[in-house]
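FAQ: What does a ligand-bound record look like?

Like this one, built around phosphoenolpyruvate:
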Amino acid sequence: MILVMKSGATQEEIDKTAQQIKTWGHDVSISKGEYQVVIGIIGDKQDLAGKPLHTLPGVEKVLEVSAPYKKASREFHPEDTVIDVQGVKIGGGHKAIIAGPCSVDTYENLILVAKAVKEAGATMLRGGAFKPRTSPYSFQGKGEEGLKMLVEARKETGLPIVTELLSEKDIDLVYQYADVIQIGARNMQNFALLKEIGKLGKPVILKNGIASTVKEHLMSAEYVMSGGLNDVILALRGTRSYETAMRNTLDVGLVPYLQKLTHLPVIIDPSHSAGKREFVSALGYAGMAIGADGMIVEVHPCPSCALSDGDQALLPEDFDYLMKKISKLESWNQKEWKKEFGSMQSSQLLKG
Ligand code: PEP
Ligand code: MN
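The answer part, i.e. the structure of the complex:
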């Protein structure tokens, strides 16, 4: 449920209304727009049956959130969520560029690439220490040793670190070191894991599943958010389709589509979409051009030495070139086009 406040509602009215809802046992999320404030009510609407919501101070109307995901929906929270990772912002016009190797291998390679991507303009460093590999005989990641190397690279460059959490059993370990927790495609519907990380305090990058729908992706974000965490970034890494030309099929149209449905930042992962170095930069450029809130991209100083995903790793100079191209872009901004687009309801969009 959401309470749309009158355009002139005072802070006192907002506080009083929020307080009253809390005394009825519900938490609230307050979203302050330029013209209007929306108070999202968290929890089961049945508990509020019969409560005089309409007559609370400053309330203009009471609406139900029509989407099956609540906290993740834009109806619940009309303003863009801006996530702050150690001073690096993402969302609401702030773009984050996360670059680094698929997996951490040697200290030398990691420091080399971390410095190179920082120099080129990356705002965060990625690197996997726990790898979800198709074969159990393939390199599985360096584990804690890899996490420690990432911390060294953070010390050297100041870049916050993004690393994948693969299993519930590694939560304590990964949370000791990471700034942002990556949940990969294979775990997008590991609901037990999603619930656990939603109770913890670090921002999460949630990739779409290998063959997931937009709705399933958003429902997974809702799982995380239902635990209390609001800092969720959605990453589009392509899905499996009938088309086998690329490793996965990236639908860049889903960037504005998701931005319509949710207030959460949406980033693209051109590396796992393309699967081949040759096409990674073009997809990255397209994703940023269509208005993604950022990008997560694999870069390695020696792709042929990489222990995973070498074929899709950009060389540092490729990344530098891509960054220069992106810096000249005037990205599409869905909000500027809101008048025409805003008449469509989220529920209609999901049916389509
Ligand atoms: C990765 O980022 O290296 C990775 C394994 O990604 P995904 O979960 O998208 O396959
Ligand atoms: Mn990878």
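Follow-up question: can I read anything off the structure? Yes, for example: The radius of gyration is 21 Å.
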